[in-house]
Amino acid sequence: MQRIFVTDVTLRESEKNGVMSFKEKIDCAKKMDRVRADVIETAKITNTKTDILFLHTIAPLLKNSMISCNVDYSEESVEMTAKALSGAKRFRLHLAVPTSSVQMEYMCGKKPAAVLEMIESLVKRCAEVCGDVEFSALDATRSEPDFLYKAIETAVKSGATTITICDSAGEMLPEEFGGFVKQVCENVDGIKDVNVCAECSDSLSMAAACMISAIAGGACGIKTAISGTALPKLTDAARIMQSKGDSIGIYSNLAYTELEHIINKMGTTRGSLEDAQSNGSSGIVLSEKDDINTISALVRKMGYDLSEEDISNVYDEFVKVAKKKRVTEKELEVIIASAAMQTTPTYKLKNYVINSGNIINASCVMTLLKEGEEFSGMTVGDGPIDAAFQCIEQIVGRHFELDDFQIQAVTEGREAVGVTVVKLRSGGKLYSGKGVSTDIVESSINAYINALNKICFEEV
Q1: d(Cα 15, Cα 82) in Å, to the nearest integer?
Q2: Would you give per-residue pLDDT tens digits along the chain (460 residues)?
Q3: Residue from 21, 83, 73 nearest 50 by CA
Q4: What is the dihedral of CA 209, 211, 213, 216, to 10 degrees?
Q5: Euclidean distance between the first and final Cα of the chain, in Å?
Q6: Alpha-carbon distance 170 to 331, whole Å?
Q7: Half-sphere exposure for 17 (CA within 13 Å, toward CB)
């Protein structure tokens, strides 16, 4: 019996559409860990502050799964990603490079010889900072065979421990893809010493069959997602291995019962990732036809315990917005943060100084006012926002669970105004705060203090 390693790429794919909130991504990672996916793959770090904060949050939470994060085409990206994942029990760095002529020119802007040099240097750097390195040959099925073999061989010699062969275009039938994987395994020196994974598109609605053919061709790993992507669905892969694994000689470590429970629960709540992508939001779209009872029920479902007065304030603000446009759940979060539990502030921001750069740890010095008295703190964190939040907690003398953190641009251009929503949990209750500024750090600080003031008001 051959063990098949399952990588879930739901988090990676969700970044392409921006359909998952900070909390939803954390929940997804927890679910995949409970399902015992061997690897949970995330997208590369693009929004430095929020992406690093997300990786820092989920890294210590994963007990069963390894976390894998894509790196960009620079050594700085490799080092930043490795540092962001340092708190994980097990982590992997993933370098994905196109190997077809068209994609190399389009995505990398490099000729084949330069691409080989890039693969060698970046895989070596990944191996120096992490013992587990994956190299993916994107668009492999449309690549020149000799170059593809050379690229994979270069990655293996440079320290890659997993090689992923991608049918990005999804043009191959199952038998073709299985034969293609077999050819790669027969023609690349050293590939027998590493794990071979297959990633295939579902553009012909045959991804599950292609996946099984790839395993027959020599792959021991597959990439899947919960739903809403062009990859094979995790449920399809699990069902095949559970029902036909004995007859074709394969098995996985997936927790089938837990997976079934999670999928069933997704179907009875507010929708799956696929539903969210079809709506372009987190799955819920409200209109002015929705009454106060509907809004009240949704607010409770989102985790808020608001008074009748606060519900009324939220609904009044919702109606103003809904008359102009449909309202998504993320927008409702902003409305709750701005309309509910408006209190006389206990803490006010007087000033702050952030020092940050790519060669130093971010630090924050901040002064808050409480009843006219100044309280100051100084902290070091993983990024300016993390340092600022830690500084507030140092001044207050308490730690709060960060339940969610959202940043949205409300205007365009270089001087765009951003709205930040911070959700803190205290005593099992959820409190949200909003901050608005052209400076992302300042809006985040104001949002945190706004939520903090609501907690202080409740606890008086």
Answers
A1: 19
A2: 899 999 999 999 888 766 677 888 888 999 999 999 999 999 999 877 888 888 988 888 899 999 999 999 999 999 999 999 988 999 999 999 999 987 887 788 888 999 999 999 999 999 999 989 999 999 999 999 999 999 999 999 999 999 999 998 888 999 999 999 999 999 999 999 999 999 998 888 888 999 999 999 999 999 999 866 678 889 999 999 988 999 999 999 999 888 887 776 654 333 344 443 443 344 577 888 888 888 888 888 887 888 888 898 889 888 888 888 788 877 788 888 778 877 778 999 999 999 988 778 889 999 999 988 999 999 998 888 989 999 999 999 998 888 888 876 554 444 445 678 899 988 878 898 888 777 888 889 999 999 999 999 888 6
A3: 21
A4: -140
A5: 63
A6: 36
A7: 21
Question: Of the candidates 290, 389, 369, 396, which has an alpha carbon nearest to the alpha carbon of residue 335?
Answer: 290
Amino acid identity of residue 308, one-letter, is E
66 vs 55: CA distance, rounded Å = 12
- 3-state secondary structure string, 3-59? ECEEEECHHHHHHHHCCCCHHHHHHHHHHHHHHCCCEEEECCCCCHHHHHHHHHHHH
* Contact indicator for 385, 441 with CB cutoff of 8 Å: yes
AA identity, residue 291: D
Q: Give the C-alpha distances (Å, rounded to integers) separating 194 from 99, 109, 128, 137.
A: 19, 29, 17, 15
**What's the DSSP call for residue 233?**
B
270 contacts 279 by C-beta, under 8 angstroms = no
| Pairwise CA distance, residues 40 & 225, whole Å | 10
DSSP classification of residue 225: B
